Amino acid sequence: MKLEEFKAYKRLSISVVSADGCELLLADGRRVLDLYGGHCVNTLGAGDEELGETLQRQWKRLSFATNLLDHAPRIDFMHAFAPNLPEGEWQFFCSNSGAEANENALKLALSATKRSKVVYFKGAFHGRTAAAAAVSDTKLAAFPQAPFTAIKLPWGDIDAARAAIDATVGAVILEPIQSLAGVVEPTPGFLEALRAACDAVGALLIFDEVQTGNGRLGEPWASQHFGVIPDLFTTAKGAAAGLPIGLTVLTSDIAARVPGNLLGSTFGGGPLVLAAAAETARRIAAPGFLERVRATSSALVRASTRGPIQSVRGAGLLLGLVLEEGHSAAVVRDQLLAQGVLVGTSDDPRVLRLSPSLTLEPHQAARLEAALEALTVSA
Questions:
Q1: Strands 31-34 and 318-323, sheet pairing
Q2: Contact assessment for residue 119 and residue 167, using Cβ atoms and an 8 Å cutoff
Q3: Which helix (H) or strand (E) holds 366?
Q4: How wide is the angle at C-alpha 17 spanned by C-alphas 11 and 23, nearest 5°?
Q5: 371 and 340 in a common domain
Q6: Mean pLDDT along residues 91-101
Q7: At what angle do helices 72-81 and 271-285 cross, to 10 degrees?
Q8: Residue 1, in any domain of the structure
């Protein structure tokens, strides 16, 4: 018998044996500062003691239960999650990933509006499942056809959005900041224009907060950062600080317009994962936590004035470092890794991404600054 892994990932040539906080420990004894955070997943860093104790207690008490049964971690999660929400009355549904959360949001929106057309934007990425892929701007089509009519518009084009969002559109979905596209921010007034256009025709506005949520921008949600509240929003990745979860959050008004049996999940909303999500939500809401996120963001922006960096975009701890002309993000990523700093790349070949754990301290930005300066010296 022979077994190989399907070659979906082009892995970096380092051997990680363990992790500590915001550092990766390599087999050769080196310590690497992790400024990528597992694609916005490691909200509380590696080996967080409080989260570990929470998981151990829950595992011993009740590790899993069918969704036919209620359990204490679900109630605890709601108490912890609610204070971070935008103003309004909300309901939530648990699944296992961002793609699932987005699938569910689209399903709810189209059911509530009784329409079958969705607007999305150039540069978008919402997942690899059928509906999520239909509203993602990817190089390779994941499926031969979309499960609904999908209309792609230019990112940030207010006039195009106003013209396209009519009474046939059921939903408009977007990332408030497009991460994979290269941390692309919305143009001034764009989110407000989308909110107004949806309100005018009865379409529903969906924010994909898989990466921008859970305190990543220095506020609990991008809707609070930008001051625009959607009808539905989704999150995953960092919501349970390393355990798989997907959350679809919708207004109570929309929930009243759709049948409850529209959604379902075997593993979604299990007690172990919800215990982790509750601990994560409490930590985000703790005094000083988001202030530190904003302070660390400022320190990273200051550190990124060195080397081949032309400009920095994004907010909080979702930052895009735009390289000067002639520089490749993949090459610079590898050079920084050799200096002991891990960063990410994006679909833009000139943009590096920073999405570290939210527990990163401002003083740790000095290691990025030193690594960038070393690139200048060796150039």
A1: unpaired
A2: no
A3: helix 365-378
A4: 85
A5: yes
A6: 98
A7: 20
A8: no
